[in-house]
Structure formats: C-alpha cells, structure tokens
Amino acid sequence: MSNTDAKTRNAKSFRGRSFAETIQKVTAELGKDAYIIEKRELKQEKSGLLRGFLGGDEMVEIIASAEKPMEAPEPQAPVNLLQKTYCRQNSASALSAVASPGEREERLARLPEQPSGSGLGKRLDDIDAKMAAGRERFESFTQEMRSLLSLQARGGLPPVGESLLAAYRQLVENEVAEDVAREMVERLQGAFSPAEMDNPEALRRALRESVSRLVSPAQPITLREGRPTVVALVGPAGVGKTTTLAKLAVEFVYRRNRSVGIINEDMRRPGADAQLRNLGHLLSLPIREVDNPSRVGDELEKLKACDLVLIDTAGRSPRSERALKELSDFLEAARPDETHLVLSGESSERSVLNAVEKFGEIGVNRVIFSKLDESAAYGLILNVAARATGLLSYVTGGQEYMENVLPAADAPLAEMILDGSWDEFRREAGGRW
User: Fold this and answer.
1) Cα separations in angstroms, 3 against 7, 11, 377
2) Cβ contacts of residue 259 below 8 Å, gap of 6+?
3) Which 3 state secondary structure label does DSSP give 232?
4) Please, is 364 exposed, middle or buried when counting C-beta atoms within 10 Å of its C-beta (0-12, 13-18, 19+)?
5) pTM (2 decimals)?
6) N or C: which end of the chain has fewer CB within 10 A?
7) At what angle do helices 119-155 and 178-191 cross, to 10 degrees?
8) DSSP character for 251?
9) Where are the domains of the chain?
10) Under CATH, what is the fold of the domain 229-432?
11) What is the pLDDT of residue 99?
C-alpha cells in the first residue's frame, strides 16, 4: 500500500478486485470513521507484463485517510473580487491622477460591481454555478462512502458488484434487515451476467421481483360459502386493531355489498365499545359484546346470517404469558377461520418480530400492517415477510374509516418498500383492488 499526497499528507491508496473488497481493506486499516477522498476504477491492459501480474481483472482504487482531508481556505467572494479587478483596470489611470495609493485602494473597493448579465459577470456566474455543483457532487459522494464504511464496520459488505452494492445500501437505508438485504443481492449476483449488471432497468426489475417473491402471495380475507366467515384481529395494544376492523367492515359492506357482524372482546380499553357502537350505527351492523369465552358460541349463533363476522380482541402484550393464554382460550372457543395479527408500521423491528413469534404460537395465520402513513420507511414489512410463517394480508394507514385497507399486492408493495411511497402504493394497489 502506497502513500499518496492526494488532498492530505496521510492519505493512502487501497486497491481490490471489487468495491466491497477495497472497502474492507479501508476499514481494516483505518476503521469505520475513515475519510474517503476519491474512488476510481483502474482499467488493466489486455496484454503485457502488468496484465499477467494482476490477473487481467479491473481494479477498484480508493484513496482514504484516517484524518479529515486538508481543505483549501474558502475564497472570499471570488466573483466580486474579479469583477472589481476588472473595474480597476478601467479606472486606475483616472484615480492615479487625483489620489494617493491608499486613497486609490479605498475608492476602488467602493466601486460598483459589474452587472452579472454582462460578458465577464456572466462567465463568472457560470464558473460559480459549476463550482457549487461540484461541491454538491463531492458531498454526496462523501456521504455515500461513509454510509458504506458504516455498513462494512457493522457486519461486512456482501461480495457483490458495485451496482448491487448500491442496491444493498438502498435496501438497508429503507430499513430492510442487513441479513435479508445481503441474501437478496447475493442471490442476484449469481443470477446476473456482467452485461446485465450494467443495465439499471434490468437490475431494478430483478430487485423488485425478488422483493415481490418474499411478500407474495397476498392473502386477503376469503369468504366461505354457505356460512359466516369468522375473522379475528389480534395484536399488541395501540397498533390500530379497532380502526383496522372498522375499515374492513366498510370495505365489505360498501364495496363488496356483504353483510357484516362484529363481536367485541375488547371490553377493557376505555372507549373501545363506544367506537364500535358508533361504527355499528353508521353501517347498521349487529354488534355483540363478549367478556367470557364460554359465551362466544352463543353470540356467533346470533350472527349466522352474516357473510362475515369480525372479532375485535383486546390488546395483549407478547411478553405476558398470562395474557397470551387468555387470548388462546378465547380463540379456541371462537374457532375463527382466519386470525390476523395487526402490527404497527412505526414499531421497532425487534418488537414486531417478537410479536410475530409469540402470537404465532397461538394460531395466527395472517399479518396486517397498520399506520403506514406514519412510517418513514417500509423495510420492516419485508423483514417480517422473510421470517413470519403467516402471510401478509392487508396494509393500511390513516384514521378515517373510509380510507382503504388494501390487500398486500405484491408488485405495488415491492415498489413501496424500495421507494418508500405510501401514497403511490395507495394509487397503484387501490386501482387493482
């Protein structure tokens, strides 16, 4: 490894056969807080001794330093200074006849600036704009490099090409778990030819298809023939179960023209019964309240004329064995056709995966993500889809009952996970629904 004087006395050159390999060398010697100064690809000759020595492969070189690069002093108003110099050339002879040297400098400093629309001013404006654009590109490059250094320090970058490395970084920034993102890009690395790697559209399409396979197929509520379909909504407190239930009721009553009944087991939370009574009044729905598993069968019998019976359960902590046993006893008595675990899209990955594990032990076979309008990124959905035994059924956001609860359609959901646009997903999935 050789020293170089590029932008700092202590900069070093690191070379590798891939970007990931070179970044690994940087972090191994300089640590995750290294400053990346420059990155470039080195084309090897197709013949001669050099090619034989390096194996004929293209190399990636990174110039990095453990110290912050030395920066040149910021120029003091370069455009104005040059403009005043131009004015001095036209005024110095006149001033020299009436003023001392000190007075001449003082008067020249007060000369008006040349209009920017004139020849020299316009050229200076163009130079200044190009300098600003260059600074922005350098800052963007520096930010990207430091992000990759951080990823490398946490768990190592996957051994993939630079295009897929950029895709990996995008996935992780959208809160896809690093092990899930790594597995995806490494699988694509094995399936792609070098020419396809240089095709951004093909790479994007393959990445979208890979995400779609993890979240597909979507499993919305399937109505049974000849009897009511019983669907229970379960989950931790505060994830939006009652609001989600209301949206499902609106969907099936108004958009599907189906009869819906509701059973309320959430008798503890203040206001829960009032919220459901208001919904029942709005949609003219029969609502039954149950505070004991032994009464579930009788209340279901009263709703046997309905196409769909939705059960709202009380929020329960996945860390409480007693609460989960209580819920398990209730579900055993209700015997729902489908049990949907409602999860908040703004929750932490750790709490969500813990809920998936614990509620999965009592028979959950579907997953609904709520509050996605409040989420900044959607990689959490992919993390759950990659690990959960249940299948994604719906996603929803917003507090209004008339705002759609949408099936987790694979292609639009993949775009949302990659691009982070809830509104775009609503338009795309809503049109297909």
Assistant:
1) 12, 6, 41
2) 253, 305, 306, 307, 308
3) strand
4) buried
5) 0.67
6) N
7) 100
8) I
9) 1-68+132-153, 158-215, 229-432
10) Rossmann fold (3.40.50)
11) 54
